[in-house]
Amino acid sequence: MKIALLSPIAWRTPPAKYGPWEQVASNIAEGLVEKNMDVTLFATGNSITKGKLQYVVKMGYAENPDIDPKVWECLHISHLMEQANQFDVIHNHFDFLPLSYSHLIKTPMVTTIHGFSSPNIMPVYKKYNQSNFYVSISNADRSPELEYIATIYNGIHKDEFTYRNTSKDYLLFFGRIHPEKGTYESIQIAKQSGRKLIISGLIQQQEYFDSKVKPFINDDDIVYVGNSNPKERDKLLGEAFALLHPISFREPFGLSVAESMMCGTPVIAFNLGSMPELILDGKTGFLVNTFEEAVEAVENIKSIDRKNCREWALTKFSREKMTEGYLQVYNKILNL
Question: At 274, phi and psi to the nearest 5?
Answer without folding.
Answer: -85, 0
